[in-house]
Amino acid sequence: MPRTTQFSLVILPILLLLIAMTSIQSGASLAKGLFPEIGASGTTALRLSLAALILCILMRPWQAKLTLQSSRSLLAYGLSLGGMNLLFYLSLKTIPLGIAVALEFTGPLGLALLSSRRLLDFVWIALAVFGLWLLLPTGQSDVPLDPVGMALALAAGLCWALYIIFGQKAGAEHGKQTVALGTIVAALLVFPIGIWQAGSGLFSVDLLPVALGVAVLSSALPYSLEMVALTRLPARTFSILMSMEPAIAALSGLLFLSERLTLNQWLAISAIILASAGAAATIRPKAKPL
Fold first, then answer.
1. pLDDT tens digits for 119-137?
2. Distance CA 269, CA 90 (A)
3. What is the pTM of this model?
4. Most buried of the four, 15, 236, 247, 289, by CB within 10 Å?
5. Cα gap 58→72, rounded to integer Å
């Protein structure tokens, strides 16, 4: 294979995916800086609203042909997207970024494992459970984690699993406009909650540059890069690489938020990453009935 072809088919999409994951977690670190001003709900509302505006300009969702039946999956997709973002940002109020992402990853991991029943799959389940056990707040821990924050991150993971389920169906029906339409629904869900918490502070011009940066880094840029990578990489390779995201999140938290994790917490994140990567590498879908 010529070097230029190898670069465009293999190396480039991997680089784009790494940039996308780094962008998302950098955006989350930047978003956490807005919490003292407008709270987690206000930050989520501002991010989704600006992201919806950007995606509408880029993808022109008004061209989509909507029907009552197809709108159901789109509505479910948008609600799960909004819930996932809101619950995740709420969890960041009390737990470190890397741990929140690791806990959130249990959603798609559980969804993947539901599709198979081999003995090896239970190894990945056990590894994920071990990682979760290491994160449980106990009196022996030097820095016990907030159980509410952990529960919110796990709930965000559940929304992530629903986002995948309904996103596949909505994507098949609405194509490239799905992300923009879903983000509009998500923004409509979260914006009233943000207004209720932040009030007029949500419309502060001083916050606009940072909020716009969060919207671009966390939504518009990574979604676009991930789409390019997904079309050029096998689904299994894409999933394995995505398993690195909790580690990237932990490093972002360390660099941008000075969130230092204990040895047990790093071990827990590593266990969940290994479980996710292992499941992606070895999972076999259920055989379709003849």
1. 787 888 888 889 888 887 6
2. 20
3. 0.85
4. 247
5. 24
